[in-house]
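Dear colleagues,

I hope this message finds you well. In preparation for our joint manuscript, I am sending the J domain-containing protein (Pycnococcus provasolii) sequence together with its predicted structure, so that both groups work from identical material. I would be grateful if you could confirm receipt.
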Amino acid sequence: MRFFFHFTISKLHLSRVLSCRARCETCVKRSFVLQWTFMAPTTSMSHARRGDNNGGAQEAQDDQDEPWSFVGPRVRDFSLGASAASSRHSPGGPGGDDCDSSSSDDDDNDANLGGIPKVKGKEKYDPHSSSERLKAFWSRVSYNSAVHAHLSDEAERLRAYREGLSQQARWDEEMERVKAKLGEESEWKFADDAATKQREKLAAQAAERVARAMEEEERAEQQQRQQQQQHRNRQHQHQQHRHEQQQTRPSAIATWLSHEEQFKAFADDPPSAVDVNVVPWPPTPWDHILAAPAAILLRGDRDRDDPEVVLRAYRKAFRALALRWHPDKFEQMFGSRVDCCSPTESQKVRERVQSLAQAIQAAWDACTNTHE
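The corresponding structure tokens are as follows:
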């Protein structure tokens, strides 16, 4: 059911056809190279449409007898018509001047020209007929419409592609603009942050300097107040020492000197049993227990009115009494003799020694607090 025909007209052979009035079979065969592909109906279907029951067998016999019988009738008619037209209109061919007189003879011999018989029951193909021209016209219109539609689609796709490229370019440009803007904003923000941090740093440093200055000022004021208080305390202590010295003269000094002699004798030759009544205790009251020994140290000193000299005398008196009446020291010197007494007496001696040591420390603390 399929026949593939490739039909093209060679320019060289076509010129020979147009220039040669005699339409021989050999020239026609050489003029057409089968390169045009189209579908032609089979012989059986062709004869069936014509109503010929023996068409298939007859057509097969014709194909064996004639080499051009496989070409459809329209192709055969076209080849014959083209040959006749070329012979009629060729100016250089033989008999070119009387082409009109020979046209009727050519039409009569068309059936036997080139060994191609005329198809019975079919009209000869006339390319100049109105029906064929109309068919060709509508074929060209359809083809042009299809081409126009295809070109329109291609143009639409091209336009869409160009619009896509343009939109992509605009997007890229907008993206670059946004990136540049973000970069500038980042730089500005970084600069603002740096300036803000610098201002905060300077403000913190200024606040720290102010706080340090306030602390130094407060410390200076506190030191000044302390110095003033110490000065007042020294004056008060000096006056108190002068008053104590005045009160300790001469009886207090004589009493303390007598106590010193008694304690020395007690330490050199203590009794076998030491009770509360045997121990030579310092003269009372013990609130100013350092005044008498300090006054004794200041006798004959020309700078006895100087607070520093007075404080130094009190320090010496404190060291001597603290060493003498320290509980551990007293226990080391007289502990064995204290134990010879009754437990009650021994307990009384130790408690009084502890109280005397505390009184000496309290007197010295009061003296130092006054001089500070």
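For the figure legend, we might mention the following. The longest strand covers residues 8-9. Residues 8-127 form one domain.

With kind regards,
E.M.
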